[in-house]
Design goal:
two-stranded antiparallel sheet; mainly alpha; 44% helix
Length: 219
């Protein structure tokens, strides 16, 4: 079956609003527009972001982000609040869940929803970009097929190859953070995994004491 595409390589039957959303999510995620459309999550993620941030606040962020892209800038060039929204969008694409925002950003956005992590939909977990980054598959879904464990995965692409594939070869490239950040300085809320495993190693979990007698419990 032949899929009709526009000059920008986007499906021809995708609404302009959705096509624009995916187009400007390409530099956020590092995946091509084809891959983002292929998840089938673009509409859900756009609606999720608008609901979580608020219609007006998201429009303000989106305008700022498009201007940054037009000037060959990245998320690091946005305001702190807009950086947090950009981080949440990246997290959403990769995990299928909207993360908890920094308290300051949550307050500045005057959000009307609880500041907690929430899954966009059950199918969003399966379509998370995180699985594609290491050529894996989500547990319990989309198995790769019998015997594929014996096939060597493709070698990771270099930064130059990735940029060429995304059509960014002529865009100035900046990488990394201005200063190195120690993992110990990263807030626990920004790290993946259950909170208990993030903060308390198993060896440090205290064991339960045996119940004492009434006499021992009396001060």
């Amino acid at each position: 079956m032949t899929v009709r595409t526009t000059e920008k390589g986007e499906p021809a039957d995708v609404p302009d609003e959705l096509a624009e959303f995916v187009r400007y999510c390409v530099p956020l995620t590092g995946f091509a527009a084809f891959d983002l459309h292929a998840t089938g999550m673009a509409r859900l993620y756009l609606d999720t972001a608008r609901h979580q941030v608020g219609e007006q606040a998201f429009t303000t962020f989106w305008t700022a982000w498009k201007e940054a892209v037009a000037q060959d800038q990245g998320p690091q060039d946005l305001s702190p609040v807009h950086q947090e929204v950009a981080r949440a969008l990246i997290y959403l694409w990769y995990t299928g869940a909207w993360p908890r925002l920094a308290p300051a950003a949550h307050a500045d956005l005057r959000r009307e929803v609880a500041n907690t992590e929430s899954v966009a939909s059950p199918s969003a977990y399966v379509e998370g970009l995180v699985w594609r980054t290491f050529h894996g598959h989500p547990a319990g879904a989309k198995p790769p097929g019998f015997g594929t464990w014996a096939v060597r995965p493709p070698a990771p692409q270099s930064a130059e190859e990735l940029r060429t594939g995304l059509g960014l070869a002529d865009v100035p490239y900046r990488t990394g953070l201005p200063d190195e950040v120690s993992p110990d300085e990263i807030p626990g809320r920004l790290l993946p995994g259950p909170r208990v495993s993030r903060h308390v190693p198993p060896s440090a979990v205290p064991t339960a004491d045996a119940p004492g007698t009434p006499e021992e419990s009396t001060p």
